[in-house]
Amino acid sequence: MTTAHDIDLREVLTDRTSPSSPDLLRRLLSTFIESRSPPPRTGPAGWRSSDRWSPTVSGARLVTSDAHAGLVAAIGASLPGAARQRCRTLHRIRLRTTCASGRLLPHLSPTCRLPSAGMGTTFHGPSPWPHITRAIRTRGTRYAAIGYLGQDAPDLLPLRAGDILVVNASKSAVKAHATSPAALAHYLNKGVRVLSCPTLHAKVIATTTRAVIGSANASENSTLADDGVVITDDPEIIASVRKFIDALTEITEVDQVFLDGAIREWEIGRAVPLPGVTGRIRPEADFLPAPVTRMFVKHAVDYEPTPTEKLVLDRQRGAHATGGPAVKYQLDSLRLEKPGTIRRGDVIVFVSADDQWLHPPAVVTSDAMRVPRSGGAVLHFLRTRTDLPALPLTDAAKALTDLGHPGSRLRTDHYVRSPSLRAALLGLWEL
Q1: What's the pLDDT at 249?
Q2: Contact at 8 Å (CB) between 5 and 35?
Q3: For 292-332, what is each residue's pLDDT tens digit?
Q4: Which one in 67, 239, 302, 428 has a CA-CA gap of 20 to 30 Å to 107?
């Protein structure tokens, strides 16, 4: 065996580099080959001459080099049967140098995007998360639709402010400890826009340059299971993943009020099976309580919140990024001059102040919160659906009369005691 040879890098740098020949890595490689090989035979001028190439090297199966035409020809002549691949390191160095100097090669886009070793379409399994985490470290907004998030999801799925995350944070998912409120809180604090979709079971991610499609939830269980994903830079697939995420329905904005409810569900324990995971159930829409046992008809009064109230509202709602699927369930608020009989889980049907419109039902999602320096006023948060229209009050009253409720009293604030009237009111919106 040939003994190891020392290469004097300082001497090589002095003797082999010049302003007209900056290809240092290529010359170092040729020097190393020469130092490991017997004295070369004299060859023709060019890449096969004794100062650059040793034709006595044999047994090589793969040569990594740049695409210089003379070098490619020399490899074919001196190492017959050896394959050749492009040297990405030199290619990247040249691209960076070109971009830094302000010159663009004809085949490059104005963004001068550098090639990545992960470009193309690749499959990863049975432990794909290290590959996913690496693949999504890109610039620009990332869109992720991941079925379930474990408590360690932020380590696996490192999102930042402005990214969009859709997750199944339904009551059943949280109660079964499939989606962690701690993970949801982490992403909210990072400035990620978090949305809940109770029917979501997909696991897909789209960045500006890559798409990830597979079976891996962002959880410790997934790192222990046999999962698989496909990672691709195909623009059509990236666009398709974005389109899929934007088209998701039954979307609820995850805010502080939503998070408070999720924490309560988490503390209840593992009691409800998950659709598509541990049982066959029809997932709830996380909107109306079942059954509706308390309903009120109240007149809606528009008012301008005080600075203190705005502070309370902003703290609960949070600051949300734009983009992603349209929100179907949104957060509203109800201000009462003094605490009343309203409590969490109640359903309220609002009537406009001019008695012209009947608004779709809203669900009270918080206990009463006192408004500082307001003389005893309290705030309740409500969850409403954005896809339900307001109805003309006269048409609603006529429809209720036709259903056997002539005394619906829609123009008077009251508690709806009749279960059949409650069902008829909800039926106006096919709920």
Answers
A1: 84
A2: yes
A3: 889 999 988 777 777 766 666 666 665 555 667 777 777 78
A4: 239
User: 349 phi and psi, to 5 degrees?
Assistant: -105, 115
Single-letter residue type at 217:
N
More confidently predicted of 16 and 329: 329
> Is residue 347 scored above 60 in pLDDT?
yes
- C-alpha angle 362-409-328 in degrees, rounded to nearest 5: 15
Phi, psi of 383 (to 5 degrees): -110, 125
SS3 category, 333: strand
Q: Which helix (H) or strand (E) holds 63?
A: strand 62-65
Closest CA to 351 of 295, 297, 396, 394: 297
Q: Which run of H or of E encompasses 77?
A: helix 69-78
Distance CA 23, CA 28 (A): 9
Q: 69-101: string of b/e by CB count within 10 Å (b at 16+)?
A: eebeebbeebbeeeeeeebeebeeeebeeebee
Distance from C-alpha of 254 to C-alpha of 383, rounded to nearest angstrom: 11
Compute the distance between CA of residue 61 and CA of residue 180 in angstroms, rounded to an integer.
51
Q: Are 336 and 342 in contact (CB under 8 A)?
A: yes
Residue with tokens 């009551």: 171
Q: Taking 60 as the threshold, does the pLDDT of residue 98 lie above it?
A: no
Q: Which among 389, 388, 383, 380 has a CA at the least distance from the CA of 288? A: 383
Cis peptide before 126, with omega less than 30 degrees from 0? yes
Q: How far apart are CA 189 and CA 406, in angstroms?
A: 51
Backbone angles phi, psi at 211, to 5 degrees: -130, 145
Residue 194 pairs with which residues in a beta bridge?
165
Strand, helix or coil for residue 326: coil
Residue 164: HSE in the Cβ half-sphere, 13 Å Cα cutoff: 27
* pLDDT > 90? residue 106: no
- pLDDT tens, position by position, 261-286: 888 888 876 645 555 454 444 445 45
Q: Is 392 exposed, middle or buried (0-12, 13-18, 19+ CB in 10 A)?
A: exposed
